[in-house]
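Tokens for chain A. Residues wanted.
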């Protein structure tokens, strides 16, 4: 299980930054070259490259360089670890909410 938690921690750390989340949202549509990814941000290209490095080290994106052009893609299944963890957290919470609803129904004052 440590690998699962390490992967989850890395992805959550990578997604903690709004710039990196915006990059992931853009890459969810299609792969893009770095210069295209940089357009909406008011930052120097080396700063964006640092963000991409964090995403790549977390396994969220992959990149390929052809000549002077680097293309970045969202790695298929990269966010599955987050989806799985959220699903595991949702199940107990939903069970608690269901039990609370039953309790409230049973203890509600009866109308005549």
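Reply:
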């Amino acid at each position: 299980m440590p690998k699962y938690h390490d992967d989850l921690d890395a992805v959550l750390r990578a997604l903690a930054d709004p710039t990196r989340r915006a990059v992931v949202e853009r890459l969810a549509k299609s792969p893009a070259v770095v210069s295209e990814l940089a357009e909406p941000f008011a930052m120097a290209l080396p700063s964006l490259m640092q963000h991409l490095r964090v995403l790549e080290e977390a396994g969220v994106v992959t990149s390929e360089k052809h000549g002077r052009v680097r293309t970045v893609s969202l790695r298929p299944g990269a966010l599955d670890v987050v989806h799985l963890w959220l699903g595991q957290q949702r199940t107990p919470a939903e069970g608690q909410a269901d039990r609370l609803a039953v309790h409230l129904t049973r203890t509600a004052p009866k109308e005549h």
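Residues 41 and 99 are 47 Å apart (CA to CA). The helical segments are 2-15, 18-27, 34-38, 45-57, 80-107.
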